[in-house]
Amino acid sequence: MTDDRLTGSECWPIRSRLFIGRITDRADARSFYRAGLMLAASLLCSCSGPQSALDPAGPEAEDVAILFFTMVVGGALIWCSVVGILFYASRKKHAYDAGQASRIILWCGVVFPTIVLGALLSYAVWLMPNIRPGFGEANARLRTIDVAGEQFWWRVRYQNAEGSAAFETANEVRVPVGERVLFKLTSPDVIHSFWIPVLGGKMDVIPGRENHLTLMAEKPGTYRGVCAEFCGPSHAFMAFTVVAMEPGAFEDWTKARASFDGARDAEGLALFLKHGCSACHAISGTEARGTIGPDLSGFGERGSVGVGALVNTQEDIARFIRNPSEIKPGARMPHFSMLPETDIQRIAAYLKGLQ
Amino acid sequence: MMTIRWKHVLALIVILPIAGLLIGWSGLIGIRASSGHWAVTDWFLHWVMRSSVSTAAITVQAPPLDNPALLPPAAGHFESGCATCHGSPAQARSTAVLGMLPPPPDLKGVIGSWTDEQLFEIVKHGVRYTGMPAWPVQTRDDEVWAMVAFLRRLPDMSSGQYTAMAGLATGRQVARMSAQAITCDSCHGEQRLGEDSLIPSLSGQSKTYLMNSLQAYVQGRRPSGIMQQAVSTIPEDQLREFAAHYASQPQPLHRSAADRSLVARGQELAEKGRAADTIPACLSCHEREGGNAAYPHLSGQKVPYLETQLRLFRGGVRGGSSYSHIMTEAAAHLGDEDITALAAYFAGRESVGP
């Protein structure tokens, strides 16, 4: 193994200089195969996971994945036949006469592409209602979640059955499995794009208008959503958590959230209020009602701090409080490094305890 | 006849600076103030100075300067910063000062020869090669304009008027030789703060906030020519005493504004903020029961002071303690009418909390 590795990596530059193009050498060939396998493996790795459109957890994403694989397989077949024909043509001794050549061009260059492209277009158009289902009246009866993309986080509001706001959360979208959900997307600042790859296609979030997107999760699990439209320096830190829950668990969660009490840790809450955090942040069950920044009710159970910037531990929370824009460039929250360290740690512990 | 060749010109270009340096090195140029300027030098320097100020003032536009509230802070600063050289209606220029070259003018005679804009130019930037310093900070044009408003009234001011305006301590002392005393109370004394005052009331403010502010002035983190001049030479122990003194005073009395709708708008903003414009509620931090003592008490401050501070915050030049950036962020999106409403509300607010 060790020898192979040496042959493969260290000798390659010299060989490439001396025998350009001669890769039939056994050792080189082996290292090429290995590289190829590794590449294929890494590509396959990205086919699954919490943020892969090729590992669908909902019908729209499934259709997108099937469309993708159909295109890949079809494209591969066509590519192979073109290469085959090219190979055959280069080996053929006698040239075609003009009449034969014209017929080949007509069939292979006009008729065949027209049929293939026509079929693909029809297939894609036929898929479209499935990928963007439920436009118009049908949406009115769906469970609605209002999502606002803001620099650089997601405001998520759940509605009651009556359509009034039930509670607000941030950077985490929870949906019941097996139920179609309507997302109403707005933005107060710049254009964002709301994308949960495992559930479906993306939808732009545009200031001054409300875009609608319906999605359905079929497999319970925790997934990852992203902002798919560059929106500023911390665009990359807008990755939110998506949790698809069994309907019963989901109902329990909404009930728990609607009656969330952030006042159990009175000492932590007092410090949170003392330093004025409530000017921007709200916590249910307390007098903190700021709506400029993310609602922090249930913050402790969220997947990350700073929307995908840090893991959600007490130390991470404290780090973020001390200097948000160091972790997340362009973050609107001012730094609080001037607070006593004990207060920062205590507030971080309080926030981690909001579960 | 010798023709001038380029070699001669070149030689001259090389020799002249060397000759200049030699003359400087020889010590033959007098720098004695005692001998004064030649009349022609004196005329030339003044002519250059007047031309320079006139040209620089072309782009300056004076705001209205008839507000009497502009006068007390400027008078106090004049006493602590300017009177030493220029004298004042209560005190002539000293003999020592008159020995300066050029001697600082008695302003009574020269103010009339400058326009407001030109005075602004001189006060803000100072005059090179004279003893006239620039305003201690370059970001507080409002203070400089207050000084211009004061200077305009200076020529006709009696000693008594001046003493009253600057709030100088007037207790009679036999054979006192130094200038009359200027104290914190000269400007900040509660009885001196009219409803139109630009000067903050310090009474009942938290000790932490007062000390933070004083240190911010001393360290130049809260730009103010007036306050930096006033406190920069005072030792920290004494500043701590000042802070403790004012913190122990009763909080100022509020006086409700006449315009109820304005106050109501201010109250709405103070209590709830306006999330759509990312304006947080003022009362989330200020005057909260158990709140951070670094956040100042606002109720009872006068409208003009509150408005000025909010504008400075909005413009990003207010500065202050290590907490001031929070307020800069909070005030960034206030509109003019928001500032008016908030000032009216807090000026008339019943004091609660710390």
UniProtKB/TrEMBL annotation, chain A:
Single Gene Ontology BP annotation: ATP synthesis coupled electron transport
Catalytic activity: 4 Fe(II)-[cytochrome c] + O2 + 8 H(+)(in) = 4 Fe(III)-[cytochrome c] + 2 H2O + 4 H(+)(out)
Topology in membrane: Multi-pass membrane protein
UniProt cross-references to Pfam families, sorted A to Z: COX2, Cytochrom_C
Compartmental location: Membrane
Molecular function, one GO term: heme binding
Domain Cytochrome c: residue ranges: 263-355
Keywords annotated in UniProt: Copper, Electron transport, Heme, Iron, Membrane, Metal-binding, Oxidoreductase, Respiratory chain, Transmembrane, Transmembrane helix, Transport
Boundaries of every Cytochrome oxidase subunit II copper A binding domain copy: 140-256
Annotated GO CC locations: membrane
Source organism superkingdom: Bacteria
Transmembrane residue ranges: 32-53, 65-89, 101-126
Function: Subunits I and II form the functional core of the enzyme complex. Electrons originating in cytochrome c are transferred via heme a and Cu(A) to the binuclear center formed by heme a3 and Cu(B).
PANTHER family found in the cross-reference section: CYTOCHROME C OXIDASE SUBUNIT 2, CYTOCHROME C OXIDASE, SUBUNIT II
Family to which this protein belongs: Belongs to the cytochrome c oxidase subunit 2 family.
Protein name: Cytochrome aa3 subunit 2
Record organism: Rhizobium deserti
Species classification: Bacteria, Pseudomonadati, Pseudomonadota, Alphaproteobacteria, Hyphomicrobiales
